[in-house]
Every structure is written in C-alpha cells, then in structure tokens.
Amino acid sequence: MLIHICCSVDSHFFLEKLQKDFPEEKLTGFFYDPNIHPYSEYQLRLLDVKRSCNKLGIDLIEGEYDYENWLEAVRGLEKEPEKGARCEVCFDKRFTTSAKKALELGEKKITTTLLVSPLKSQEQLKRVGDEFYASHGVEFIAVDYRSGGGTQDQSRVTKEEQLYRQDYCGCIFGLTMQRDQQNRLMDEMFSPISGQTLPASIEERLEIYTQRNALEDEGKKYKIVKQKFLNYRQFNCKLISGKKELLEAYALSYSTLPRKKAQGRIEFSHNDVHFFNREEIKFITLQTYNNLTDSSYKSIKELIYNPLNFDEEQTLRATVSDSNYDLTPIIVVNEIPQTKLSIYLDAKTYQDTKEKLIIFS
Description:
The protein is an alpha/beta fold. The chain folds into 2 domains: 2-166, HUPs (Rossmann fold), CATH 3.40.50.620; 230-359, no CATH class. Helices cover 39% and strands 23% of the residues. The chain is built from 11 helices and 14 strands. The chain has helices at residues 8-21, 39-56, 67-73, 85-105, 122-136, 150-160, 172-182, 202-217, 286-293, 300-305, 310-321; strands at 2-5, 28-31, 59-62, 109-112, 139-140, 222-241, 246-247, 249-251, 261-264, 266-270, 273-276, 282-285, 330-333, 341-359. The strands form 3 sheets. Strands 3-2-1-4-5 form a 5-stranded parallel β-sheet, with helices on both faces. It has a 5-stranded mixed β-sheet with strand order 8-13-12-11-10. Helix 1 packs across helix 6 and helix 2 packs parallel to helix 8 (202-217).
C-alpha cells in the first residue's frame, strides 16, 4: 500500500495504526506536498517525516516539489476557505500523482495521512479518493482514525515522539487567511537578505530539529520545550541627511520607532555612543561596532549582508544601552553625521512562542 504523507504529526500515528490494522501489507510512504510554502517549511516537514518513517521501519519516497505547477492548478481559488474548492483541487493534484506513483510501483491500494488531520474533511477526501479509484483502478483506503478518541491518541503520540507540530496546513493562501483571522504577523514568510536566522523562524526550527536528530543518533537525551518571548521583525531602515543624501545605515535588532519616522540631530556623545535629540535614538560608528564585537567589518553594506547572529546582536545592544529591555533604535553608520537627519524605521515587536532544545548531560 502506498501512503501519501503530509507531515509527521499526522503520519506517525497514522502509520502505526496502519501497521496494526494491515499487518500483511508492505507500507511505502510517499511525501508529495508541493503546496507547502516556503521551501524551508517543506524541508522541515520532510526532515521530521524521514525520522518517523525510519523509526517505524517504513520506506519513504520523496515526490517532486513542483510548487509552480501547484500554484497554476489552484489559480483563481486563492480566497477559498479551508476545506473549500482550493483544497479539493489540491487533493486532486496530490492524489493523481500518488496514484501514478502507486501504478508505477505496482501497488493496488493508496491512502493518505490527511485523513487523520482535524483541518481536513474526511468526506471530501473519500469522495476524491473514490473518483480516482474509478479512473485509475487504484483502491483508496479511507480509514477513520480520528473518531473514538483517535485525535487524543494522536496528540499523545505527537508529544511522546517530540514531533514537529506545525500550526498551519502548509498552503500560503490558507496561512494568509489564518493569520488575518488571528491578527498575527505572517512571519513564516520573512527571510532576511542577510540570511540571519531569526527567532521563532522556520530556519531556527530547522536547525533545532536537525540537531535533535543528531542527538538521537548519538544516543543523547533531550527535550524540546516551548517558551513565550518578545519577538521582532524589521521591514526596512533608511537614513537620509538634510541634503537628501541616502546614508548607509544598519539598525540593530529590536530597534523600534512608534511612528516609523524621526527627524533631528545628534545632540551629544558619551563613550563612543552618540545620542539623537528625538525618540532616544543612539548612533555608533562601524569602528565602534567592530571594537565592541571583536569584528572586522569594512563597510555597512558588508554588515547588512552578513551580520552577527541574533544573540550576538542582543549582547551588543545590552552593552550599548546598559539594559536588557531596550527597544530604542541603535543605528550603525560609517561616520557620525553632523547634519539634520531623517530616520525611517519600520519594525514590529510582538508576543510569540518558540521552541528550545534542552540537552541532558
């Protein structure tokens, strides 16, 4: 039997149940999910699915990540709600590809872990699966592992196995509507040009779960926990002199301006920190930045494209501001400008939750 797999939270429990209910069947997993966006999220879910299949002794095949073709397939259905017409087209595409893969492998039965997802309609999935049985001759096995306490058992398995628990189906359109309804920033779509790993980002999770797998290979004990914290995303920063000249500038993380703009001048300096006369803004030179961080940046541009990691920046912020709770802008420049300045800074702080890996000695 070929099993289309969407994620480890659904697949681990689902595959365990299939192994028990179909002991004579050789189960083969097929990870085909071109709807998942961004690609880093796809990589993270695949990483966790590989781990699950390996633990359960199930072969896994990775399908093509043909995201552009998926976008074309759902064109015009972007605003459809979850479980609506877009989902049905998405199922059609994934079932078609899964059915073709089953035929290629000589399998006569297919099913999907989507059946156990509380976000999906089992009736919708069964209808689409039956249509493919009629057209392709591959039987769709519509098992119901959600009823009879199945959802609670699935949650137990997810916790026991410390699986990656994503909080959206994977589709960018579903995510957009979900975040709009929650009035939350869609920070899954943020990836800075610097490549810096941001807190609670998909890239940070990918690092954590990759390290988790390495710890298991080494036989080390660990625990993945969650913690609440103040998160931060910066959208843009621009510094303009009184002569309308754009100056090279870099704003440290957690730099915020309530009205996104401030105008004024450098008022005084102390210990190589230069104080603006508006919004408590502070300036330091690139040379001071290098001295305080033991770095050797030669230009602001180099700093923008290859900054220190997030934790190192926070250490620098605490040094410059003498505070662990400082949110004022700290701007790095080549030289301290003596003219009137306009600072444009669009950034957001917000309450969030992130994973943390605890390693037991």
